[in-house]
């Protein structure tokens, strides 16, 4: 009933430019949330290699030749995976910061500066991500 | 709108749980990241080291709790997002079932993994 | 096309025809007058145009649509050049454009002072009241469109029914559990309590907030910020009593109630009455949670 | 002919401002099946613009008798005592009723509703809700309408009344109204089994600088007029002394009530320093202040030769924010002035019509089944000048009375006579130009049809059908013609009215206005609508309204020309004194089937327990 009249291009494009802080925060939070769930599932799938590994010989385990350790090491050797991990960190940090912002908003704190807190979350995310690059990429080359 | 008076819609409860899990996750996720990327570098991971951590009861329970809350928080978040997009009726029911099944699978698999490290539930 | 002028002149010519059906003498007279008028109008429009060319004008791009009129069924934007005066609002400009160039330009308006709530529109990418928006604050060309996420009836007029339905859904009326016996004795209300609900009582039903909310756009059943604010207005009013408050909390807690709100704040940002909508919605959420906890 | 859609109810209320909503609630509570038909959605009505407050004697030390005395004095002894007493007696109950309906009044420390002083009142009895009393009242009442499930046909413009066609208007009866649905262009009949209540509000659009809304075109007054109901005291127009120069937006009297001060260009507090009102100063009656301001401007002491300053800075930020916050926003948004930092520019603007549809103290007109309440009606409680805060109580008091009456409740015999019955006096009024509609022009009501030789219709449904068909024809014709644009005619009317029938009036100007109006009327016969659409055709709508503006402007100017005295809001250069000898009487103008007719009826100064003796009005 209240669907918009089809205004063609006007409705479809260009609108994003009219988005305000709160809307961007919402979109980013959504996006990061979804990425995190996606990661959670993949993460558990990868870690599950620990189940067959636990059946292997202690020596094999000690040498780090088990399925689990091998999988992780192989993955960690890929530069792509390292970069993705940095991305994951960015995503997680933003989600945490903005999530904290949302928690405060839910408590009725800082409603007037909600746009500022969003920008702060963005900037902090950027800083933390950049600062962690060395640690994350260490040993990848 | 028939559902207007149904105070049984657990909207409020789920909303509150989403916030509570979020607050919990802030701490745990930060700890998790810190531990596995900064204290122990990612490329130094091995079964033995992981197993060693997991054999401690407190760490084990924390991780299980982490798993459960993260799963709840994530899956409930996804579900809410879909509802907000106007998902209703049979589709909604189907999505709900799928998500619940996926969560159960995820948690079961996660617990089995943890047990693998700990060699059973550490007691 | 820079204004509506040329087109209007055409229309005048084309419509001289049906008049011929009238009695000849009267008809002739009329036609003569009409020709005069057409010429006059052209002169006037030209004068307006010249004045416009004289420098201080503003350019408006206005959304046009009419489901019945050929040529308007396909939505389009028309440009109008309006002579600028200090203190001119978007509404003034629209009125000028309508009265000078195209009398079919359609928009709702009445009070001209931001109390009737009829002229919320989408101006340069934001929901605003046309009468309360100074032209001088906007960049050119000023793009005027009907409220997004509502059915467009014609030009800038949208269907408000859905908005009204949502308002009605929260039982928007005072309903005290009990009233003073004496019909000349008022209910007491503390200053603090009036202060608490004051902002929420200011809503003028303009629909700007609803139009700006992404959630409302995606979920037609979502009560929306205005209706939730209305609910807040009564739920927080101490004069109503506990029993009624419980019922009100149940209403706002329904599936498409407060929990839908994702704190996007755009409602709060566009509200011409500066009502802190998000704050009110958030308070209702907490109120609802507290209320539920009581029963655990 | 009978194929027209018809909606049927016991009582049809036209208009959904404070008056219409109250009438609908009352009629429904009295057991009637009511519907409201309004060209705006109820919450868009102009009642929402009222800022100041509602006068009601609800406190110890105050009494309704004092309120009545103040009102009579304020009216310059042109109010009818039975109506004034009804207003003041009922207002406390009705005001508290609003509170019981949840209206968000401002509060005192002890939780009771606040009252403040207002111009012309001997006691601070103006009950208020911040600076948005009308908004709160309108919304509170609409909420109660929603609660009661009263049917509302919104965005239906009422075009005319369905009235029978007896020769003598006092024998006619009203059976319904003809509505035009703005959204679809549908024209339909609304059959009222028991009564039609007009509550269509003000007529500010007759002037070009007004505090009224664009929708305030006096439709109800014009419709009733054409149906044979006299217009009463039309020359009495209140000009509000403090409106913003560029838009006409009102700065509430509350500012002066709280202590705001008026200054001229020389920084003089002229209300005192030039002796306009040595006792009350800024709080003198509106007409006094409006004339004082214009005199200042005319004598060269105006700012930019146009306005004066209203200063409230000395009240302090806290008090201003607490009680007059709304004013700050208005000055900022519509004039670009910050009231905390600088004085606000103000000048007089059309504000309120004291006159209107002649009714008795129950809101009944001389046509059976036709009622009028609110600003469109003239009961008369405001006489020659309305006191601030007296219009809102009028809405709720007479709204209630008319609603109940229409729903069939029993009342005492009224003391106020309506129509050309009882005692009245024919005027020897010579108009310098031909008035009204000349033979052969569009007819207005069913009554005219009979006068034109149409067959007599008595059956209510048939009366309605005839009326509907007439309006369908009218609209078809307007849509088919591309004639003069109504906007030109409207602005001609507004300009001449503002130039000649403003705060200061003299014979020459009034005559000029009448001939300008004559010309405008002639042009209106060639009016056409260039937008052929049936959907939301505001071009058509405004064209229909312009007809009403014409009829009203003419009657208003007639009254102003006839009344050669200075009383209340009406000032005449030729005779600048109140002339109680000759003019303690109402002017009434009957449409008389297109040939307007002016006559008089004496004022009723005899109250329930006392007679109100005319005294000099000094403040
Ligand atoms: C700015 C301002 C401030 C004021 N402040 C005060 C104050 O402080 N105190 C006070 O006592 N008074 C005040 N007044 C006066 C008072 O507000 C008005 O007189 C009063 O509100 C009029 O109410 P109403 O119900 O008669 O008309 P309105 O509220 O104007 O309502 C008219 C209704 O009629 C409908 N209508 C009109 N024509 C048609 C038609 N053809 N068909 C269908 N429907 C139609 C409209 O849609 C509307 O719903 C103020 C007035 C103004 C303008
Ligand atoms: C670490 C701290 C975290 C915080 C503070 C946090 C906070 C939040 C909050 C407050 C919401 C609710 C948003 C709303 O409904 O308005 C949310 C949504 C969500 N969260 Fe988290 N979260 C955290 C971690 C996680 C993790 C680990 C995951 C992944 C498993 C995750 C996945 C999601 C998802 C999918 C959503 C839904 C997003 C949407 O609306 O589409 N979050 N988060
Ligand atoms: S809450 Fe504000 S934006 Fe929404 S309808 Fe009311 S006044 Fe308009
Ligand atoms: S924009 Fe919508 S999401 Fe909530 S804060 Fe406002 S209602
Ligand atoms: S015209 Fe009334 S709100 Fe703008």
TrEMBL record, chain A:
InterPro entries registered for this protein in UniProt: SdhC_prok (IPR039023), SQR/QFR_C/D (IPR034804), Succ_DH_cytb556 (IPR014314), SuccDH_FuR_B_TM-su (IPR000701)
Q: A single GO molecular function, which one?
A: metal ion binding
**What is the species of this protein?**
Halopenitus malekzadehii
In which domain of life is the source organism classified? Archaea
Q: Please give the name of this protein.
A: Succinate dehydrogenase subunit C
- SUPFAM superfamilies noted in UniProt: Fumarate reductase respiratory complex transmembrane subunits
- GO terms (BP aspect): tricarboxylic acid cycle
Q: Specify where it is mainly localized.
A: membrane
Which keywords describe this protein according to UniProt? Heme, Iron, Membrane, Metal-binding, Transmembrane, Transmembrane helix
Q: Would the keyword Ion transport be found if you checked this record's keyword annotation?
A: no
Keyword Amino-acid biosynthesis found:
no
UniProtKB/TrEMBL annotation, chain B:
Which parts pass through the membrane? 20-39, 59-82, 94-114
Q: Name one GO cellular component term.
A: membrane
Annotated InterPro entries: SQR/QFR_C/D (IPR034804), SuccDH_FuR_B_TM-su (IPR000701)
Database matches in Gene3D superfamilies: Fumarate reductase/succinate dehydrogenase, transmembrane subunit (1.20.1300.10)
For molecular function, the Gene Ontology terms on record are: metal ion binding
Compartments in which it is found: Membrane
Q: Which CDD domains match?
A: SQR_TypeA_SdhD_like
UniProt keyword annotations, A-Z: Heme, Iron, Membrane, Metal-binding, Transmembrane, Transmembrane helix
Q: What is the protein name stated in its UniProt record? A: Succinate dehydrogenase subunit D
Automatic annotation (TrEMBL), chain C:
Keywords, A to Z, come to: 2Fe-2S, 4Fe-4S, Iron, Iron-sulfur, Metal-binding, Oxidoreductase
Instruction: Identify the cofactor(s).
Output: [4Fe-4S] cluster; [3Fe-4S] cluster; [2Fe-2S] cluster
Q: In which pathway does it act?
A: Carbohydrate metabolism; tricarboxylic acid cycle
- One GO BP annotation of this record: respiratory electron transport chain
Q: Under the GO molecular function aspect, what terms does this record hold?
A: 2 iron, 2 sulfur cluster binding; 4 iron, 4 sulfur cluster binding; electron transfer activity; metal ion binding; oxidoreductase activity
Question: Record's family?
Answer: Belongs to the succinate dehydrogenase/fumarate reductase iron-sulfur protein family.
Under which name does UniProt file this protein?
Succinate dehydrogenase subunit B
Starting at the broadest rank, the lineage of the source organism is: Archaea, Methanobacteriati, Methanobacteriota, Stenosarchaea group, Halobacteria
UniProtKB/TrEMBL annotation, chain D:
The active site consists of: 286
Which cofactors go with this protein? FAD
Q: How does it sit in the membrane?
A: Peripheral membrane protein
Q: Does the keyword Transport apply?
A: yes
Q: Which InterPro entries match?
A: FAD-dep_OxRdtase_2_FAD-bd, FAD/NAD-bd_sf, FRD_SDH_FAD_BS, Fum_R/Succ_DH_flav-like_C_sf, Fum_Rdtase/Succ_DH_flav-like_C, SdhA/FrdA/AprA, Succ_DH/fumarate_Rdtase_cat_sf
The alphabetical list of record keywords is: Electron transport, FAD, Flavoprotein, Membrane, Oxidoreductase, Transport
Q: What GO molecular function annotations does the UniProt record carry, in alphabetical order?
A: succinate dehydrogenase (quinone) activity
Region annotated Disordered sits at 408-427, 434-454
Q: What class of enzyme is it?
A: oxidoreductase
Q: What Pfam families is this protein classified in?
A: FAD_binding_2, Succ_DH_flav_C
Annotated Fumarate reductase/succinate dehydrogenase flavoprotein-like C-terminal domain residues: 491-619
| Superkingdom of the source species | Archaea
| Family assignment from sequence similarity | Belongs to the FAD-dependent oxidoreductase 2 family. FRD/SDH subfamily.
Name of this protein: succinate dehydrogenase
Its taxonomic path starts at: Archaea, Methanobacteriati, Methanobacteriota, Stenosarchaea group, Halobacteria
């Amino acid at each position: 009933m209240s669907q918009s009249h089809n205004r063609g291009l006007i409705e479809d494009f260009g609108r994003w430019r009219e988005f305000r802080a709160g809307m961007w925060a919402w979109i980013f939070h959504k996006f990061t949330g979804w990425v995190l769930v996606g990661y959670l599932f993949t993460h558990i799938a990868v870690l599950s290699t620990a189940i067959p590994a636990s059946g292997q010989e202690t020596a094999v385990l000690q040498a780090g030749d088990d399925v689990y350790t091998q999988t992780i090491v192989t993955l960690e050797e890929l530069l792509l995976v390292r970069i993705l991990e940095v991305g994951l960190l960015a995503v997680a940090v933003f989600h945490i910061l903005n999530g904290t912002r949302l928690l405060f908003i839910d408590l009725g704190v800082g409603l007037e500066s909600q746009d500022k807190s969003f920008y702060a979350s963005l900037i902090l995310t950027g800083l933390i991500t950049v600062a962690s690059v060395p640690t994350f990429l260490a040993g990848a080359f | 709108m028939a559902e207007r008076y149904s105070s049984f819609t657990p909207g409020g409860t789920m909303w509150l749980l989403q916030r509570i899990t979020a607050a919990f996750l802030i701490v745990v996720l930060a700890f998790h990241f810190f531990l596995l990327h900064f204290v122990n570098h990612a490329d130094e991971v091995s079964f033995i080291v992981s197993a060693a951590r997991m054999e401690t009861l407190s760490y084990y329970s924390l991780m299980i709790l982490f798993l459960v809350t993260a799963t709840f928080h994530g899956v409930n978040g996804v579900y809410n997002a879909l509802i907000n997009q106007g998902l209703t009726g049979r589709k909604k029911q189907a999505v709900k079932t799928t998500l619940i099944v996926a969560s159960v699978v995820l948690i079961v698999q996660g617990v089995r993994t943890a047990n693998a490290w700990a060699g059973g539930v550490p007691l | 096309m820079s204004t509506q002028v040329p087109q209007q002149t055409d229309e005048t010519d084309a419509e001289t025809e049906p008049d011929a059906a009238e009695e000849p003498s009267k008809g002739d007279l009329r036609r003569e007058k009409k020709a005069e008028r057409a010429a006059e109008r052209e002169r006037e429009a030209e004068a307006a145009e010249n004045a416009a060319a004289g420098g201080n004008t503003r350019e408006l791009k206005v959304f046009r649509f009419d489901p019945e009129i050929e040529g308007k069924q396909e939505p389009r934007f028309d440009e109008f050049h309006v002579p600028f005066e200090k203190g001119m609002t978007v509404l003034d400009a629209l009125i000028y454009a309508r009265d000078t160039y195209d009398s079919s330009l359609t928009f709702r308006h009445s009070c001209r002072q931001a109390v009737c709530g009829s002229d919320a529109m989408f101006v340069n990418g934001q929901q605003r009241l046309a009468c309360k928006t100074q032209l001088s604050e906007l960049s050119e060309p000023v793009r005027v469109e009907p409220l997004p996420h509502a059915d467009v009836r014609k030009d800038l007029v949208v269907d408000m029914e859905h908005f009204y339905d949502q308002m009605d859904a929260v039982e928007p009326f005072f309903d005290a559990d009990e009233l003073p016996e004496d019909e000349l004795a008022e209910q007491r209300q503390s200053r603090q309590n009036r202060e608490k609900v004051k902002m929420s009582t200011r809503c003028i039903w303009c629909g700007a907030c609803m139009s700006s909310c992404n959630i409302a756009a995606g979920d037609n059943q979502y009560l929306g910020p205005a209706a939730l604010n209305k609910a807040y207005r009564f739920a927080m009013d101490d004069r109503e009593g506990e029993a009624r408050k419980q019922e009100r909390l149940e209403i706002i807690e329904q599936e498409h109630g407060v929990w839908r709100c994702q704190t996007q704040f755009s409602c709060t940002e566009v509200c011409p009455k500066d009502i802190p909508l998000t704050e009110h919605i958030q308070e209702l959420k907490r109120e609802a949670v507290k209320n539920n906890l009581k029963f655990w | 002919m009978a194929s027209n859609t018809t909606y049927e109810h016991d009582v049809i209320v036209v208009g959904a401002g404070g008056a219409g909503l109250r009438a609908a609630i009352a009629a429904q509570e009295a057991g009637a099946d009511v519907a409201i038909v309004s060209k705006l959605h109820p919450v868009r009505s102009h009642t929402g613009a009222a800022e100041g407050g509602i006068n009601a004697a609800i406190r110890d030390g105050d009494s309704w008798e004092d309120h009545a005395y103040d009102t009579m004095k304020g009216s310059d002894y042109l109010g009818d005592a039975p109506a004034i007493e009804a207003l003041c007696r009922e207002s406390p109950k009705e005001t508290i009723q609003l509170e019981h309906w949840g209206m968000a009044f401002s509060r005192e420390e002890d939780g009771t509703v606040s009252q403040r002083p207002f111009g012309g009142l001997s006691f601070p009895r103006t009950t208020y809700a911040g600076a948005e009393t009308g908004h709160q009242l309108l919304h509170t009442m609409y909420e109660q309408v929603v609660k009661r499930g009263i049917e509302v046909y919104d965005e239906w413009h009422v075009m005319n009344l369905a009235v029978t066609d007896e020769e003598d208007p006092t024998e006619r009866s009203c059976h319904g109204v003809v509505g035009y649905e703005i959204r679809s262009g549908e024209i339909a009949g609304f059959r009222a089994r028991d009564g039609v209540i007009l509550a269509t509000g003000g007529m500010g659009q007759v002037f070009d600088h007004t505090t009224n809304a664009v929708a305030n075109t006096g439709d109800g007054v014009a419709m009733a007029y054409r149906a044979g109901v006299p217009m009463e005291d039309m020359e009495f127009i209140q000009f509000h002394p403090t409106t913003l120069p560029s838009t006409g937006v009102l700065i509430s009297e509350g500012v002066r009530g709280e202590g705001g001060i008026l200054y001229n260009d020389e920084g003089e507090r002229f209300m005192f320093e030039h002796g306009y009102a040595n006792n009350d100063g800024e709080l003198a009656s509106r007409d006094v202040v409006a004339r004082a301001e214009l005199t200042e401007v005319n004598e060269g002491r105006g700012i930019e030769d146009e306005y004066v300053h209203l200063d409230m800075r000395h009240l302090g930020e806290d008090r201003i924010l607490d009680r007059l916050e709304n004013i700050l926003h208005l000055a900022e948004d519509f004039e670009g002035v910050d009231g905390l930092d600088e004085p606000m520019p103000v000048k007089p603007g059309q504000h309120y019509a004291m006159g209107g549809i002649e009714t008795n103290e129950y809101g009944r007109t001389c046509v059976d089944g036709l009622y009028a309440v609110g600003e469109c009606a003239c009961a008369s409680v405001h006489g020659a000048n309305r006191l601030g805060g007296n219009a809102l109580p009028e809405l709720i008091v007479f709204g209630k009375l008319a609603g109940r009456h229409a729903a069939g409740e029993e009342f005492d015999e009224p003391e106020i006579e309506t129509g050309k019955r009882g005692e009245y006096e024919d005027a020897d009024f010579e108009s310098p130009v031909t008035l009204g509609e000349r033979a052969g022009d569009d007819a207005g009501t069913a009554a005219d049809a009979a006068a034109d030789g149409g067959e007599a219709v008595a059956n209510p449904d048939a009366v309605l059908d005839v009326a509907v068909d007439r309006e369908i024809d009218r609209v078809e014709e307007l849509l088919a013609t591309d004639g003069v644009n109504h906007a030109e005619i409207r602005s001609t009317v507004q300009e001449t009215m503002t130039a000649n029938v403003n705060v200061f009036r003299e014979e020459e100007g009034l005559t000029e206005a009448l001939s300008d109006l004559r010309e405008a009327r002639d042009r209106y016969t060639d009016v056409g609508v260039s937008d052929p659409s049936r959907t939301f055709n505001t071009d058509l709508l405004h064209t229909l309204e312009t007809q009403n503006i014409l009829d009203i402007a003419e009657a208003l100017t007639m009254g102003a020309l006839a009344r050669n005295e200075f009383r209340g809001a009406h000032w005449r250069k030729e005779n600048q004194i109140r002339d109680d000898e000759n003019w303690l009487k109402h002017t009434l103008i009957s449409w008389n089937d297109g040939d307007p007719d002016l006559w008089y009826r004496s004022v009723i100064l005899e109250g329930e327990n006392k007679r109100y003796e005319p005294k000099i009005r000094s403040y």
